Amino acid sequence: MVGTSLQQELNNFVRSLREQGILDHNFDTLSRIQNDQSPLFVTEVINLFTRDAENAITQARDSLQEPSVDYDKLIAAVHQLRGASSSIGGCRVALACRELRSAIDDKDKERCNEILQRIVEEYQTLHVNLAHILNLGRQILALQRGQHQA
Questions:
Q1: pTM (2 d.p.)
Q2: Residues 120, 88: contact at Cβ < 8 Å?
Q3: Is 89 left (phi over 0), alpha (psi -120 to 50) or beta?
């Protein structure tokens, strides 16, 4: 019974994130792929996303701190972050990345910095919420494993 209420809590939490525009249907797709043979699939994808996103943000930040911005390097970091965000369902991060790409095309360093700051904020929001999803998932998995052993 407790596992059912935790699963419902997770479902409600994810639905709330979709309603807030933090996650989109791509997260649901990831969740559907997870099964008994790969119970940690979502956890693994979230961990990869976190690593890749933080690397891309660092690369973008480093690029913008240079006196002469290497916009090609910045574009590569933004594409990496946008792709990773889209695949996990982080639609607000992905949208901000599209806006950053526009500022890059205009070679507007000040606007790039402003949008990158917004990306960082959106990423932090997404990261905190994904961490909560992982926590609930771990609790559910622990309960399921306990029930199978009983």
A1: 0.91
A2: no
A3: left
